[in-house]
Amino acid sequence: MENKNISDLTELIKQIEANEILLPDFQREFVWKDVELQKQLVASVLARMPIGSILLLQSSNPKEFSSKALGRKQIINTSELGGNVEYLLDGQQRMTVLTNVFSNAIFQGLTSVNDLVAPMALKRRFFIKLPKWKSAEDSEEDIFGFHDLNFPTENLGENPTYLSSDIMPNLEAIEFNKNDGKAFNPFTPEEKAKSNDLAKFCTSKDDYYLIPLHLIGSNDKTNINKMTRIKTEIKNDYISDMKDHYDALHEDEQQAFIAKYEEEIDENRDFSTALGEVFETWWSSFSEYLKDCIKNIILNQIVVSEAQRGRAIDIYENLNRGGVSLNTFDLMTAKVAVVSSEGLYQRLIKYILEPTEIDKNVVPERMEAEVAKLTNYNASLRLGCYNENNNTIASKYLNAFLDVISLRCYNPDFIPSEYKLDYIKQDKILDLDPENINQNVEIVCKGIDRASFFLQTRCGIRKLSEVNNLFILVLLACIFLKDKWFHDKKVHNLLEAWYWCVIFSGEFDKDQNRNFIKNIQLLTKSLVDSQDIEWLKNMKSMILNAPNYSDKELLLYEKVNDERYPKKNLADYICQFLLSEPCPSMFDSEEVISVFSEKTKSDNTSLEAHHIIPLGSVKKIGQVSGALRRDVRSIYNSPLNFIYITKKDNNSISDKSVNDYIQEITSEAKSRLMLAKFQNDEYNDDDVKDFLSERFDRLQGLIRNRVGDLLANSGYSSYCSN
Prior knowledge:
Layout (H helix, E strand, L loop, with lengths): L1 E3 L4 H9 L3 E4 L10 H12 L6 E7 L7 E2 L16 E6 L1 H11 L16 H4 L1 E8 L1 H4 L27 H4 L3 E5 L14 H7 L1 H5 L5 E5 L8 H27 L3 H9 L11 H25 L4 E5 L4 H11 L8 H9 L7 H9 L15 H5 L6 H5 L2 E2 L4 E2 L1 H16 L15 H5 L3 H25 L11 H10 L3 H4 L2 H17 L6 H18 L4 H7 L11 H4 L12 H12 L3 E2 L7 E2 L13 E5 L13 H5 L12 E5 H7 L4 H4 L5 H6 L12 H28 L10
Parallel strand pairs: 2-5, 3-9
Antiparallel strand pairs: 1-9, 2-4, 3-5, 6-7, 6-8, 10-11, 12-13, 14-15
Helix pairs in contact: 9-11, 14-19, 17-19, 17-20, 19-20, 20-23, 22-31
């Protein structure tokens, strides 16, 4: 990785003109459209102020990503490019503005203004305003010493005394339209531009001259000649104004006037000739200063080699905390665009919106009645993978998509040993062949949809945010890429058994990446080679028994003196396990509570996590329920004290004690949710611990029995993929 704190803008522009710096097609907008914002950037350059950084990714393959030229909408035909290129990952906004202000690069070869990425924002020419001699005396805007032809900076390498805010009044942005014929308009044919004479335009204002910044630093002979004519016109006009003033003075006043220029204007020489020489000296300093500003802009140029592409993404995210992050999916989008005219993001939306393939044969008996009620069912939509209101895909979905498609592309034949940790790392994902990605987009989206279906019908999961570990979704999707496995109920039984073992044993609590690869290898080996899964039996023994993760002592808050507390996700898992089997609502035996029972989030059917022993029923005088809820040492916040109930039922219970509300609930709900009365109406922490201890034992038994039944009905020891 190379860092340059000082950059030569003229060289960067040459690279842009030669298509050696390209903008990968991330579908990101150009947003620096406000003219004042653009002027502030230009002012910072001309005041030698730091202007931020750009991030470039080197590549030996110009066809690696679908790309655009800076400031253009159209995709470049990269097949015509050869040699190395640098992809601009960060800095599109400032580089587009700087290129537009200080060159013609964006407009070269352009036939329509509509091809600009933001026509109204880029159809502008920027000029420095120099106050004319007759209006410049004592002017605060004469920061370049134009009135007295005394440029303020002798050493051009030094920083000036003025600030970017001092430069701002000296800048003017003038808009143009394609066919207006203005001499500075890049769309105006050269012969017509000559007839309009840019030099005449630059001296046509009453109070100031205009210096076109797009000509500064150009080595093009035509542009050099234009600047020379502009300088000559300004010099002649300047001398004429000063000469008129000089001639109107008395002789003694003329002597004093000449004295201001010390020895530079000899009274015995021709006034106009001598003044012209002083002007040339000033102009040389002025123009060299401007050139030096753009040749040595304080722009941090971070160049990352193609071998460190993943590092480039990390650098981007560190540069843009709080902004719109560049990510691996952005680069994949640009890569796939090389082989597909349809945008990757839009393709994902299209596939997400397709109806879910419901196979009722794989649905567990406990959920058959609920699934039968479904109409126009879409598992991905119901899980919240895509927000139809704001047309955005959930970031969790995109991250899962990247992992699944990488594992699919590297291991299309489901070879257990070929699921490798490297394949879910950024560099390997970015190494994927565009055609391979393109061919697998639809099947991967289907795999994630199938995994969503499984999580809803088997695991009590209602929304994507409840999938606490993304690798669970990735693993399920990878296995369900194979049609035979998705349509086999035995496979679903095996995966459900695995799921409850994983979340209640803390298998993914630590070293998640390696444990994910280990688990997908073991599961596929069982499915492919009919291998015994003793490892899963061992994991079953750790259900609600993993030390310092799900053991009984931890959940009963017997380790708080060692500063050990249960993780919140265990409360979610317990609630989800209970929700995975439909049961009657608390107060109405005809109303069924399940993953699919919610109608809208605003009505009384929405489910809420409820303290079985309500905090309001145990708070002490003067104590606030909210404070008790935040008390990490309180046993009332144990995961064992939570269930999902409807909003309506939650409102009915409110802060009633367990003994009060339990008399009113249905016997079915009481049994299913493992609710029991306390012996006394008044209960203390020890009573609560006994209550939750009994609930722990019953929960552990229920979960382990479920897993045992699933394994017995999976046929895993004799299952074969043939």
